Amino acid sequence: MVSLFHVMGLITTGEVGLCISYALSLTDLMNFSVRMMALSETNIVSVERIKEYHDIEREGPFTSEYPLIDAWPYSGAIEFRNFSIRYGNSEKLAVKNMTFSIKGGEKVAIIGRTGSGKTTVARGLLRLVEKASGDVFIDGVNIADLGLRELRTRITIIPQDPVLFSSTLRFNVDPFNQFPDSDVWLALEVCQLKQMILKHKDGLMCEIEEGGKNISIGERQLICLCRSLLEGGGILILDEATASLDHAAQILVNEVKDKRDRAPDVDQTLRHTPCIALH
């Protein structure tokens, strides 16, 4: 086309050279534009992730001014009054108008099929999910009046999938370094883990992989149970803690659980199988 314009006398020879020069550079510019578009498409994922985190509903205050005594919960009595929970902006309630009470020292099993709301009850008690309506009282104190730290440090939960960090055994048992080694060894002995740890040359400093990948499922649950022994607390929640264990491991975990003598104590066990719920 440039040659045609030149033959027709519409452009000069110099302008022909200029057009050819720009045409050659245009190819590089097009390649650069395509690369930038591909890079932008890749990096926009980071923007989406930032927006996702920004839109997450914030939890309640970490602490509060509520005059809570150090011995709370002193009996562990729990009362749910017309308690309802929904997830996110869903109109459907996961738990609706639930009303029941647990006396201090009682062991209570909540039994139901998958998706019936058993774990939701535990999440509501820990305020991992905020209520839609109703109230929960522990020893007469409305948990909505408490800071999250004050509430969650008084409740111990052992989930179905044990939470273990990539660190030492001691850190996983006592993450805030609150207890002396003698107490840690005593808790390990109660949980029947002491002999296993003594076989390691590093003892309490032996490494645990993230999620406890280098130990058995039963040992993971026993480590979590050992952590609960040290932390104490007036309320213990087992959210299907033995569901993925074999029969021998279930018996071992239940024996250790029965030795948990931190009183007062409410053992709220959430399981599918009625016969197991009798423990």
Automatic annotation (TrEMBL):
SMART domains referenced in this protein's UniProt entry, alphabetically: AAA (SM00382)
Major place of residence: membrane
Record's subcellular location: Cell membrane
Species in which this protein is naturally found: Angiostrongylus costaricensis (Nematode worm)
Bilayer disposition of the protein: Multi-pass membrane protein
Protein name: ABC transporter domain-containing protein
Gene Ontology MF, one: ATP hydrolysis activity
UniProt KW Nucleotide-binding keyword: yes
UniProt entry tagged with the keyword Magnesium: no
All copies of domain ABC transporter, residue ranges: 78-279
Record-level GO cellular component terms: plasma membrane
Keywords, sorted A to Z: ATP-binding, Cell membrane, Glycoprotein, Membrane, Nucleotide-binding, Transmembrane, Transmembrane helix, Transport
